[in-house]
From TrEMBL:
GO terms for molecular function: acid-amino acid ligase activity. Residues 379-490 form the GH3 C-terminal domain. GO terms for cellular component: cytoplasm. This is GH3 auxin-responsive promoter family protein. Residues 294-362 form the GH3 middle domain. It holds the Pfam family GH3_M. It comes from the Bacteria. InterPro entries: ANL_N_sf, GH3, GH3_C, GH3_M.
Length: 504
């Protein structure tokens, strides 16, 4: 008998519970809200803001919106072992988040409660929703390759760790899970990414791997090395039973065609997850719909700020039940890890309300609005997909920024793109991208009208491994680190352009 079919029955209760998201969203979120407020009532934060007197959402609005800079002093005290600060008891784990690729790291508290009722809950539900979509799965007939980061001791606090969230999850996972995952923990947690790729390759290439989990860019590096060592160009020849890749961390659009070429199987599935250092928020529950299901019964209470209000003195903030479809929001979370009304920096757009489904549209700091064009990462991904489709191109990585004024007093957007497969015509690629962005974004179209404000965009072809080298130079290979897709300044792109002249 198919062992997966037998084990799948254990996931039926969660499949039924998530079905209630369509009709019970407000009640489920209210239950989470009450539990979080009650559990944190006697913490320093809870006492400061009178959590014992908070009975309804309106009472909660007296708590100010937080960014990392506001909570950093509290987090530092928690990192030194102080208890009952932002969350009850002692928090021992801290996820080092790049969030952006600037030099400052954020240390996001990961409580024992949050580890289980947010992060591990998301991992279990990823499997539950996958099996629901693929009843013919043989998921448990082999092992899962889970690509993680690394961790290190946190100051000198006993049993306390700081590092990539993925490393914290691997370190604390139920020992039974280790029976169905590869590689072994000591390889999975190596800090040197290039050594890790080599050792993962040797440890997994002769295993029966049925599923992959990780960031698409870093997983691609591992898979390509495995193919190189095995002397083949089709991963199915290495792992014939491979059937699903749970991916997240960066948009999958630029990588989709490359994965299809590496894994030439009509049985292969791709399932997006939204698992950030701050929490596990979304899962794709329909292979044909890129939107993700918002996970509303974990230890996360959601609020949203319309993009036009972000950064204003008194932003309009709405709970989940008041969001509108097809509108860009900055996400605000309160969690069982002790984050309260915390802006995580991601922007989302809802596509459905019964149940609540959404797409990630970008980051509050990763956009181009130098000339009023309001170009979001979501726009960029869609435009690039059309340009690739029209020209046969495949993209490894990219970054874009404004050119404020050149020698001829002209302004434009400059795109630095590393291609896995060059377009049949770079000029055609540029034109399709530019036209697509105008079709997708009316503000961009208005600024491009008759070339008055914005000239046609410029594409610079990046040398092979440019973005890899840029991340390596910053000590940011592997883990959750990612290339900034869009930037409103030229800081990142100037560094990359300088490195683009150096051939390795």
């Amino acid at each position: 008998m198919n062992s997966t079919r037998l084990i799948s029955t254990l996931f039926k209760p969660r499949q039924k519970a998530t079905a209630l998201y369509a009709t019970q969203a407000e009640a489920l979120q209210h239950k989470v809200f009450c539990r979080l407020i009650n559990d944190a009532a006697n913490t320093e934060w809870g006492l400061k803001y009178g959590y014992k007197d908070i009975k309804r959402y309106q009472d909660f609005q007296r708590v100010p919106i937080q960014t990392y800079e506001e909570i950093k002093p509290y987090v530092e005290r928690m990192r030194h072992g102080e208890k009952d600060i932002l969350w009850r008891g002692e928090v021992q784990w801290f996820a080092k988040s790049s969030g952006t690729t600037n030099d400052k790291s954020k240390f996001i508290p990961v409580s024992r409660d949050g580890l289980h009722d947010i992060h591990y809950a998301g991992g279990m539900d990823a499997v539950a929703l996958y099996l629901q979509q693929n009843p013919e799965s043989r998921f448990f007939s082999g092992k899962g390759l889970i690509l993680g980061g690394s961790h290190a001791p946190n100051y000198n606090v006993k049993r306390s760790l700081v590092g990539d969230l993925s490393a914290i999850l691997i370190e604390n996972v139920n020992p039974l899970v280790n029976l169905i995952r590869v590689p072994e923990k000591k390889i999975a947690l190596l800090s040197d990414f290039e050594e890790k790729v080599e050792r993962i390759t040797r440890a997994t290439m002769n295993q029966n791997v049925t599923n992959l989990s990780g960031v698409p860019s870093w997983m691609m590096a591992v898979l390509k090395h495995i193919l190189e060592v095995k002397g083949t160009d089709n991963l199915v020849e290495v792992w014939p039973n491979l059937e699903v890749f749970f991916h997240g961390g960066v948009a999958f659009t630029p990588y989709r065609e490359q994965y299809k070429q590496l894994i030439r199987s009509d049985k292969m599935h791709y399932m997006e997850t939204y698992n950030a250092s701050e929490g596990f928020f979304g899962l794709q529950n329909d292979f044909s719909d890129p939107s993700m299901l918002l996970m509303i019964d974990y230890g996360v209470f959601y609020e949203f700020i319309p993009m036009e209000d972000v950064g204003t003195e008194n932003p309009h903030i709405v709970p989940l039940v008041d969001v509108e479809l097809n509108k860009n929001y900055a996400m605000v979370i309160s969690t069982s890890c002790g984050l309260w009304r915390y802006m995580i920096g991601d922007t989302v757009k809802f596509t459905n309300k019964h149940p609540y489904k959404f797409v990630i549209t970008g980051r509050t700091k990763h956009f181009i609005n130098a000339f009023g064009e309001e170009l979001m990462v979501d726009n960029a991904e869609k435009g690039l997909a059309k340009a690739c489709e029209a020209t046969g191109a495949q993209i490894v990585d990219y970054s874009a920024a404004p050119v404020f004024m050149d020698a001829y007093a002209k302004c434009r957007h400059q795109w630095l793109i590393e291609f896995a497969v060059m377009p049949d015509s770079l000029e055609n690629f540029s034109q399709v991208l530019d036209t697509s962005l105008q079709q997708i974004n009316s503000d961009y179209e208005a600024k491009r009208h008759k070339n008055i404000t914005l000239q046609p965009l410029e594409i610079i072809v990046a040398r092979p491994n440019l973005f890899h080298d840029w991340l390596k130079e910053k000590g940011k290979l592997g883990g959750q680190h990612k290339v900034p897709r869009l930037s409103n300044t030229r800081d990142y792109i100037e560094e990359m352009l300088s490195l683009n002249q150096i051939r390795t």
